[in-house]
Amino acid sequence: MTIEHVVEAHGVRLRPFRADDAADVVAACADPVSQRFLPNLPTPYTETDARWWIDSGAPAAWTGGGAAYAIADPATDRLLGGVGLSNPVPERGQAEIGYWVRPAARGRGVGASATRVLSEHAFATGTIRLELLTDPENGPSQRVALAAGFRYEGVRRSAGSSRGGGRHDLLAWVRLAGDPPGPTARLLPDLPGGVLTDQVVALRRLAPDDAELMYQLHSRPEVVANQAPPVPPERAAIERRCRLAESGWLTGDIARLLITDLATGEPAGSCGLSYTDVASGEASLGYALLPDWRGRGYATRAVRLLAGWAFGPAGIARLTAGTVPENTASHRVLERVGFHREALQRGRLPGLAGTRLDDLTFALLPADLR
């Protein structure tokens, strides 16, 4: 990549690091979020570390065939963060892009703008493929990738090192020189205003703090009995599910939601939606309620809200829901929303001890929604 001393576009300036950036580098790199998701940073991060980066670390990135820019405010030239290229693979025309932002500058699109600027500059100077790797629990960084035009490509298993030892997965986001400009369209868009409601029930994205509630719900015997296979979940699996809920939306894997009573804010249950066939626009949904909220129409309201969002903002063409044949209460919920019984698939699902379970499938088209 050709070295440019200053590159300015999309509301940010990329320039070399300077000695007077040290205090802002410390503020960024000593921050708990940076320390969590950038495990190679020294801890505690001090002014000595910042001066090493400015005097030696950043210049070494250029010497090694990469890049290390300071992100600055064009109006004041004050440091907002850093963005760079590393791990070049010349024979593939490939490099890895990464960034960090000072806490006071977060939430303003600085990371996305800087990533766009450096990506465009890299492509203009011969790079063909850029990778951006994120921790699966780092939703804001994944949003940066999407806003900068990167597409989710898959999981790099055990590609990341954890602070204090150990390995963890990383998510790979990729942009090619020939990709169209602008943000990447998502399979599962955010809820409008962060919530769906009919003024009685409200749905919002599942969050890490919902783990205990979700464990209590999904380990109930009657809920387990309607799963395939009917095995109670482990607490650690539920905790991880809640921590990864935002990532599931951003990668297009699954939308997990909490069902609450709008008036009191009390949790009533959960529901979710995932694609079964992206090419044909088909997705499947499921739900479960806590005992105190059953028989009050909350499941019907939640499914109706979720279906309306699926056919509207999400652009899904067809919804399905699978149930065990004995779950008549769930059948009534689906039928009240407008689902039609479509097929009994014998032995489709795994049961206990090598047995197989039948799957009664319901389907809903936009015109069916009541």
From TrEMBL:
Protein name: Protein N-acetyltransferase, RimJ/RimL family
Keyword terms, alphabetized: Transferase
Matching Pfam families: Acetyltransf_3 (PF13302)
Domain N-acetyltransferase: 12-177, 201-359
GO cellular component: cytoplasm
Molecular function, one GO term: protein-N-terminal-alanine acetyltransferase activity
Gene3D superfamilies xref list: 3.40.630.30
Keyword tRNA-binding: no
Record PROSITE patterns: GNAT
